From TrEMBL:
Residue intervals of the Ketopantoate reductase C-terminal domain: 170-293
EC number: 1.1.1.169
The organism of origin for this protein: Marinobacter salinus
The protein, known as: 2-dehydropantoate 2-reductase
Catalytic activity: (R)-pantoate + NADP(+) = 2-dehydropantoate + NADPH + H(+)
C-alpha cells in the first residue's frame, strides 16, 4: 500500500494515477478519515474518471509514504505519522521550494528520505474535481544515505502510474533549478495578481529581475551549486514564464484562495541563506515581505 499524506491536488493526482486499490490517504493527527475521498479526475486529454481513495486504517502495511503537503505544513503533518511508520519505510517529499526537505532529512536521519521535483500541473477548481492540466516530468532522488538503495525501486513503483518518472542522482541541484524558476515567477504573479506570462511586460518585474538573478547566482555559488551567470538564470525564468504564459502560479492561487503561500521556502529561503552566507538579498527580502503583506493574518491550513 502506498500511503499519501496530503489530499490536495498533487496528492489526488498520484492517487488517481497509481493503480486502483494501491493507495490510501493518511489522516492528519486527531482527524479520523472515515468515508473515502471521492473526486472526478480530468486527464490532460480531457478524459474524466471517478476516483475513490480510502483513508489508511491503523495497522495497514505501508510500503511507501508520499508526502504532498504544502512545504510549511510538512514537519507538523509528518510528526505523528513518522511515529507509526517502521524505520525502514521510505518517505518521498514533493514540496515546492527548499528548506523543508533538508529539515525532514535532518530530523529523521535513519529513515530513507527522498525528494521529488515535478513539473506535473494539477489543480483543484472545486472540492470534488482535480484537473491534470499538463503532463510533466518527475525526478526522484535520495536526500540521505539511508535512501540511496530505494531510489531505483521507488522510481519503478511510481512509474506504474503512467506518469513520467526519472531517477535523479543530484536531487538538490534539481530542486535548486526549480527554486530559481519559482523565485523568479511566483512572487511577481502574486503581487501583480497576473498570469505567469504577464509578469514579463510589467515594470515591477523589469525593474527587479536582474538584481534578483544576481542575488540567486551568488547564493547558488555559495551553496555548492554550479555558478551560473545571472543572465542565464533570467533566461531560464523567462522561458518557463513564456511556456506557461496563461497559467496561474501556485503562489497566486494560494493568495487568491486565502491560503498561506510557500514564500518562506522560496524567496524567504534565499533570504535565510543570504543571512548565513553574508550575501545581501534586498530583492528577495522585498518580494518576501510584499507577498506576506498580501495575506497578513493567514494561519497554516492543511491542503
Ligand atoms: O511551478 C510553478 C508554480 O506555479 O508553482 C510555475 C513553474 C511557476 C508554473 O506555474
Amino acid at each position: 500500500m502506498i500511503a499519501i499524506l496530503g489530499a490536495g491536488a498533487l496528492g489526488r493526482l498520484w492517487a488517481a494515477s497509481l493503480p486502483a486499490g494501491e493507495t490510501a490517504f493518511v489522516p492528519r493527527a486527531g482527524a479520523s478519515g472515515n468515508s473515502p475521498v471521492d473526486f472526478q479526475f480530468q486527464g490532460p486529454d480531457g478524459s474524466i474518471q471517478d476516483v475513490s481513495v480510502p483513508w489508511q486504517a491503523l495497522g495497514d502495511p505501508v510500503s511507501l509514504l508520499l508526502v504532498t503537503t504544502k512545504a510549511g505544513d510538512t514537519q507538523n503533518a509528518l510528526t505523528s505519522v513518522m511515529a507509526t511508520l517502521p524505520g525502514n519505510t521510505p518517505v518521498v517529499l514533493f514540496q515546492n521550494g527548499l528548506g523543508s526537505q533538508q529539515a525532514v532529512a535532518q530530523r529523521w536521519p535513519g529513515h530513507p528520505v527522498l525528494a521529488a521535483s515535478t513539473t506535473e500541473g494539477a489543480n483543484r477548481p472545486d472540492a470534488g474535481t482535480v484537473i491534470h492540466a499538463g503532463s510533466g516530468q518527475t525526478w526522484i532522488g535520495a536526500m540521505n544515505e539511508a535512501a540511496q538503495p530505494y531510489v531505483g525501486p521507488i522510481v519503478q513503483q511510481l512509474a506504474t502510474s503512467g506518469l513520467s518518472i526519472h531517477r535523479e542522482s543530484d536531487i538538490l541541484s534539481r530542486l535548486w533549478q526549480k527554486l530559481v524558476i519559482n523565485a523568479g515567477i511566483n512572487p511577481f504573479t502574486a503581487i501583480l495578481n497576473c498570469a505567469n506570462g504577464e509578469i514579463l511586460t510589467s515594470e515591477f518585474y523589469q525593474q527587479n529581475i536582474d538584481s534578483l538573478c544576481s542575488e540567486i547566482a551568488a547564493l547558488m555559488a555559495a551553496n555548492g551549486q554550479t555558478k551560473e551567470r545571472p543572465q542565464v538564470l533570467r533566461q531560464q525564468i523567462e522561458t518557463v514564464a513564456e511556456n506557461t504564459a496563461r497559467n496561474t502560479s501556485s503562489m497566486r492561487s494560494d493568495t487568491l484562495a486565502g491560503r498561506k503561500t510557500e514564500i518562506d521556502f522560496i524567496n524567504g529561503y534565499l533570504v535565510r541563506l543570504g543571512i548565513d552566507a553574508g550575501i545581501p538579498t534586498p530583492v528577495n527580502q522585498m518580494l518576501t515581505e510584499q507577498v506576506k503583506l498580501l495575506s497578513p493574518n493567514i494561519q497554516e491550513q492543511p491542503d
